Automatic annotation (TrEMBL):
Regulation of catalytic or functional activity: Inhibited by L-aspartic acid.
Residues annotated as domain Glycosyl hydrolases family 2 sugar binding: 20-157
Family indicated by similarity: Belongs to the glycosyl hydrolase 2 family.
Official protein name in the record: Beta-glucuronidase
Record EC number: 3.2.1.31
Length: 579
């Protein structure tokens, strides 16, 4: 059966659809879009009943419905996280036709989605035509939509490895890898687990589906700039063998494992029992043309810039990033604060049960996806919610306790911008993360006030909660190439002087209870149109095309100074290198 779909346009995957065509209605489109393509699958996938065929969507923004050969196979709420459907049975029903995959994606945000938003119909017919509506949101980035990450077809045997959980620890020189393997599709199965070092040598093994592997003379996973050889990864190879009356099945999975611990005290963040100071950035998945679509050259360029800068960490502001990016962090020793898409929760109706239920489900999906990454050292459940509203107390208590139950090994936070005295959720977080924009949104132009106001901010938060604090955002817009001395807002000089004033205070407080500083933002990024934004947010220290502004050099000098003072430089910095 051959189906004609109708007029279509070429649309690359992965990519946001917004900036691909010249059509302004598609750029700002709100509603359903349809993707479709046919693929031919190997005959063996059809004839061998012992094979599971799985369709996996890395992420699609926001609500997706998926059909295969016209039959609905799954739907999923939420961008930023993967979802799957098993389609083998369906393909077997009509083995002669190619596999037609149809994905409908709707980017509408409501009060109960994450991030939340609302649709507003404009009813004044003297101003707006019939049916005119806008999508309102409370976040500061463009609501890019489409299929943002790869769509894959893969197979497993009927009996397969469904999940692996790894929790690591160490005592003296011995590493401990507590693991548990979940098997599906087999009444009984044997599992062989082998932990290998980077040279491919087996360092520990077991025949149990769960247990503890002991690693003598362990190589711990260390962050970049904290050890000469950061990002050490073992490989946990798991082989599953199962049989039924028809056949035997073998599944195998190799999971990179970094052995490290994370702990928080009243004043410190400890990785492997050593104080870790976050000197890093906030990012966005954002670039010209592809929007939020995964783009390997961009990913690798960004990691080169992060390392050039001497940054040791970033926050996945304001949603979960592609798994490929987390894998890069594991390998390079870049520490992550892994954030949910809980950004812009400002309306009291977004603190109700429907929203909370969805937020809990998103945390389930996020922790299930990212729990085994050594680079992830903390969960952030939200960014700048209206945490002063009374329902925030129950909302964040439930959310944070739920996340801790999912993963007792990592601290949990949400990022706040509200007043310390009125914040209802702060008692439940492990680390206080505060955003502030002194001399920008407050007292514009008055950089001389930063020192006083920032000092007050830190003393107030620490005084009330006695928890370590990360300055999770600070910065100023700079339009590249605009200069003025003495500095005025939007110039490269002003961005620099704001940063310098913040740094002076960080240097006093980091010896006490401030455990990190994350610049807003790594690079300029696109926002919705408005009078406060000139073709996007310009607080990047790099342009959207990843060229440095003056502030990038200032930050580079600072981060390498911090690294020299608090860390251990990687081996390659001791030899001539293109820094
Ligand atoms: C914030 C937000 C971030 C914005 C930034 C800004 O507090 O968390 O999403 O982009 O401020 O530049 O206004």
């Amino acid at each position: 059966m051959f189906c004609q779909t109708g007029p279509v346009i070429d649309m690359p995957v992965p990519a946001s659809y917004n900036d691909i065509t010249q059509d302004p209605t598609l750029r700002d489109f709100i509603g359903w879009v349809w993707y479709e393509r046919e693929v031919t699958v190997p005959d063996r996938w059809i004839t061998d009943e012992g094979i599971r065929v799985v369709l996996r969507v890395g992420s699609a923004h926001y609500y997706s419905v998926v059909w295969v050969n016209g039959v609905k196979v799954t739907e999923h709420e939420g961008g930023h996280l993967p979802f799957e459907a098993e389609i083998g049975t369906l393909l077997r029903k009509e083995p002669t036709i190619p596999c037609r995959i149809t994905i409908a994606v709707n980017n509408t945000l409501t009060l109960h989605t994450l991030p939340p938003g609302s649709i507003q119909y404009m009813n004044d017919r003297t101003m707006y035509p019939d049916g005119f509506f806008v999508q309102n949101t409370n976040f500061d980035f463009y609501n890019y939509a489409g299929i943002h990450r790869p769509v894959l077809l893969y197979t497993t045997p009927k009996a397969y490895l469904d999940d692996i959980t790894v929790v690591t620890d160490f005592m003296d020189n011995t590493g401990l890898v507590r693991y548990s393997v979940s098997v599906q599709g087999a009444a009984s199965a044997t599992v062989k687990v082998t932990l290998m070092d980077t040279g491919g040598h087996c360092v520990a093994s077991s025949n149990e589906p769960s247990g503890v592997l002991k690693v003598a003379d362990v190589n711990l996973w260390w962050p970049y700039l904290m050890h000469e050889n950061p990002g050490y990864l073992y490989s946990l190879e798991i082989r599953l063998m199962a049989a039924d009356e028809r056949s035997t099945y073998e599944d195998v999975y190799a999971l990179p494992v970094g052995i490290r611990t994370v702990n928080v005290t009243r004043t410190q963040f400890l990785i492997n029992n050593k104080p870790f100071y976050f000197h890093g950035v906030n990012k966005h998945e954002d670039a010209d043309i592809r929007g939020k679509g995964l783009d390997w050259p961009l990913v690798v360029k960004d990691f080169n810039l992060i390392k050039w800068l001497g940054a040791n960490s970033f926050r996945t502001s304001h949603y979960p990033y592609a798994e490929e990016i987390l894998q890069m962090c594991d390998r390079h020793g870049i520490v992550l604060i892994d954030e949910s898409p809980g950004v812009g929760i400002k309306d009291i109706r977004s603190f109700g049960n429907a929203s909370l239920t969805h937020h809990l489900a998103v945390m389930d999906e996020l922790v299930r996806r990212d729990k085994n990454h050594p680079s992830v050292v903390m969960w952030s459940v939200a960014n700048e919610p209206a945490s002063e509203m009374p329902p925030a107390e129950n909302y964040f208590k439930t959310l944070i306790l739920h996340t801790k139950a999912l993963d007792p090994t990592r601290p949990v936070t949400y990022v706040t911008a509200s007043n310390y005295a009125r914040d209802k959720g702060a008692p439940f977080v492990d680390v206080i993360c505060v955003n502030s924009y002194f001399s920008w949104y407050h007292d514009p132009g008055h950089v001389e006030l930063i020192s006083l106001q920032l000092n007050t901010q830190f003393e107030d938060w620490y005084g009330k909660y006695k928890k370590p604090i990360i300055q999770s955002e600070y910065g100023a817009d700079a339009v590249p190439g605009i200069h003025n001395d003495p500095p005025v807002m939007f110039t490269e000089e002003y961005q620099k002087v704001v940063l310098q004033n913040y740094h002076n205070v960080f240097d006093q407080k980091r010896k006490k209870y401030v455990i990190g500083e994350l610049i807003w933002n790594f690079a300029d990024f696109m926002t919705t149109q408005g009078i406060a934004r000139v073709v996007g947010n310009k607080k990047g220290i790099f342009t959207r095309q990843r060229q440095p502004k003056a502030a990038a050099f200032l930050l580079k000098e600072r981060y390498w100074k911090l690294a020299n003072e608090t860390g251990t430089l990687p081996l390659w910095t001791k030899y001539p290198c293109p820094l």
